[in-house]
C-alpha cells in the first residue's frame, strides 16, 4: 500500500505547548526535528526527556505514545504498536492520519501472518485495516488473496472487485478474479477436512475410501520428502480433489495434466480400480512443488521446479528411452537452452513440447546429483530457504554458474 514502507507520523501541535517550560518545549522541538529527519531512535530519547520534564502534559505524552508505536512497528511488534495507538486514542480523538497509520499496522501484520500461513488471523487483521482505510486497493488485494486461500470465494471476489473499482488498471487482479469465479463455480459446496499441514477440499459425493487414500499418500509424501531433502511445508496448504471434468473446469487445463500446484495442490480424479500408482505419483509430484516453493525465498526457475518435482515421484528414474528422446530433439534444435525450456511450459496444446520440457528438466536435475553429489543438491535446496538470488546461491553452492553447469549437462547428453 502507498504508505506501508514509510510509516507516516504527523505531529499535531497544540497551542498549549507554547505555555510549557522552555526546556520541555525545546526537547519537544528537537524530537520533532529528529522525526522529520528520520532519526526515530534519537527522537524517542528526546520525547522521553520532554515527558520527564512535563509528565502531566498530555500533548507530549500522546506524542511519546505515537513515536513508540512507530518504533514497535519498525521492529514488527505490531500488537504493541496498536496498543500504543489505542492508549493515545483514549486521551485525544484520533486524526485521519492516526487511523491510516493504524491501518498500515494491521495491513503489515496481516501480510506477515499470510506469509506464515496463519490465514484466519490474517483475515481478522486485514478486515480491521480495511475498516480504518477503505479506499486503498492494495489492502483489498491482500484481503482477496487471504480469502482465496481460505476458499472463501465470495469474499475474495468482493475484495478484488472493490480493488478494481478503486484502481481499474490491474490486469493481474482482473485475471485472478476471472479464475476465482471459475473455481468458485466448481468448488462451492465442497466439504473440508483438516489434515495438518493440509486443508483438504473435496466434493461430498466422492467415495470416502478414495479421500482416505489421498490423505494417506499426502502423509507419505510429507514424511518421505522431508526425510530425503530436509524440506518441510512451512504453512498450511490447501489440497483440492476434483472428480469428472471438475479439474479442467476449475483450472482451464487443456492438456493431460493430472495435477497442478499454484499455491494450492490440485488433484484430478484417478482411476484406481487397477491400482493407484498414478495417483501416488501425482500427489508426490505436486507436494514436491509445494514444499520447494513454500520453503524458498526466491523465484525458482521452472525447469528446476519441475525437475525437483519429478525427482520426488517414487517411481521416477532416468531411462535410456527418455535420454534418447531428449537427445534427438536437441540434435534438430541446437538453439535450445534451459531459459527456452522455461517458456515451453506455457505450451498448453502440444504434448510433444511438454514431454520434452519435463524430460529435459528431470535429466538436468539428475545430472546435478550425479555430477556434484546428492548431498550438494540437498544443501542447495536448503540454502534457498535463506537466499535472495537463485543464481548467486547456485554458484555459492556448486562453485559454478548455472550457465556453465547447463553446458556441462548438454555436452554430456550429446556424447
Record the SSE blueprint.
Blueprint: H1 22-37, H2 40-53, H3 58-74, H4 78-91, H5 96-115, H6 119-132, H7 137-149, H8 153-166, H9 171-187, E1 191-195, E2 198-202, H10 208-229, E3 237-241, H11 246-251, E4 259-261, E5 265-267, H12 277-295, H13 302-312, H14 320-332, H15 338-344, H16 351-372, H17 374-383, H18 390-398, H19 402-413
Parallel strand pairs: 2-3, 3-5
Antiparallel strand pairs: 1-2, 4-5
Task: Give an overview of the whole structure.
- With 415 residues, this protein is mainly α.
- The protein has four domains: 15-93, Tetratricopeptide repeat domain (Serine Threonine Protein Phosphatase 5, Tetratricopeptide repeat), CATH 1.25.40.10; 107-187, Serine Threonine Protein Phosphatase 5, Tetratricopeptide repeat, CATH 1.25.40.10; 191-291, 3-Layer(aba) Sandwich (Glutaredoxin), CATH 3.40.30.160; 302-413, no CATH class.
- The protein has helices at residues 22-37, 40-53, 58-74, 78-91, 96-115, 119-132, 137-149, 153-166, 171-187, 208-229, 246-251, 277-295, 302-312, 320-332, 338-344, 351-372, 374-383, 390-398, 402-413, and strands spanning 191-195, 198-202, 237-241, 259-261, 265-267.
- A five-stranded mixed beta sheet has the order 1-2-3-5-4, covered by helices on one side.
- The protein is globular, with a radius of gyration of 27 Å.
- The protein starts with 21 loop residues before the first helix and ends with a helix.
- 33% of the residues are buried.
- Residues 2-6 and 8-21 have low confidence and may be disordered.
